[in-house]
Amino acid sequence: MPTKGVGRLQSRPLRIVVIGGGTGLSVLLRGLKHEPVHITAIVTVADDGGSSGRLREEMDMLPPGDIRNVLTALADTEPLMEKVMQYRFSTGTGLAGHNLGNLLLAAMNEITGDFVTAVKTLSGVLAVRGDVLPASTQSIQLKAEMTDGSLVIGESQIPLTGKEIKRVFLDPEDAVPLSEALMAIADADAILIGPGSLYTSILPNLLVRGLFEAITCAQAPKIYICNVMTQPGETDGFSASRHVNVMYEHVDKPFLDTIIVNSAELPTHVLDKYAEKGAAPVRCDSKRLRQLGLHVVAKPLVTFEDGYLRHDAHAVSKQVVSLVKRRRKVLKIEKE
């Protein structure tokens, strides 16, 4: 007979924690929110460019841009509301360049006096499916040491140098994670890392020490969703295993169980378009990935939208849910 604990495990919805930032995370969440799961998105707060950077500096608040994108991706609202959240002013003294969703979060932050409360309040307004949490409530600056010994300060500046990155690190290095994020990780059935910019969206979360410690202590499988294309200024020429190794080098230990990698052949005209910008497909070096102890899921998982390659959010989400359900079934059998 199943134990009482196993019965509870089987009856509750799958709880999936997704960690990252940038466009990649938002694309994934648009698919995952349609699955029968509870989502907690833990989002980087290292952004310092554009509207987010201006609000961060002028209003002494956490950068709202990545949080806004995630809220919009998880929202259960009319399409017009999404356009409102993503609207960027092109004119107006002081307004030009600002995103309306960022300004809404700034207003909520001023009204409530707390950024986390502001995010929760706006989540309610947008009928967000899940929880959205900043990785930390401290003001974090991302810095990079390049292979030539130079130092680059600021998340937005790192990919622009044209130099190879040796390592990135946080200032302050002892940033404290949000307690709710730690609880969500401990209670998760799966922890997803990515997709997203390796150095500027993923590593800023993993470098929040308490957050990474919670990830390593969690019983849930850790699944890395690898980018489809390399990113100029960050991952030029990187294979899938190099992405993994860079994470391991930064946190000083292996921690992933599974990697999801695209295996679809990409059309020549698409490759040519990306090549003009210095990007190429991330090579799935399956043998090396397995040598790292990873379970490799290599399948066609891309779509082409608005001139850009994106992860097929629904296909990736279904792969994730299938992996987690299979693991839950194994746990049930083991405990009976």
Describe the 3D structure.
Helix 2 runs parallel beside helix 4 (65-74). This protein has a seven-stranded parallel beta sheet, with helices on both faces. It folds into two domains: 4-44 and 135-335, CofD-like domains (Rossmann fold), CATH 3.40.50.10680; 47-134, no CATH class. Strand 4 and strand 5 form a beta hairpin. The protein is globular and about 55 Å long. Mean pLDDT is 91; it is low at 1-8. The protein is an alpha/beta fold and 336 residues long. 41% of the residues are buried. The chain has helices at residues 4-11, 22-32, 50-59, 65-74, 79-86, 100-112, 115-125, 179-186, 198-206, 209-217, 240-251, 268-275, 286-291, 313-335; strands spanning 14-20, 37-43, 131-134, 141-146, 151-153, 165-171, 190-193, 222-225, 258-262, 295-299, 302-305, 308-311.
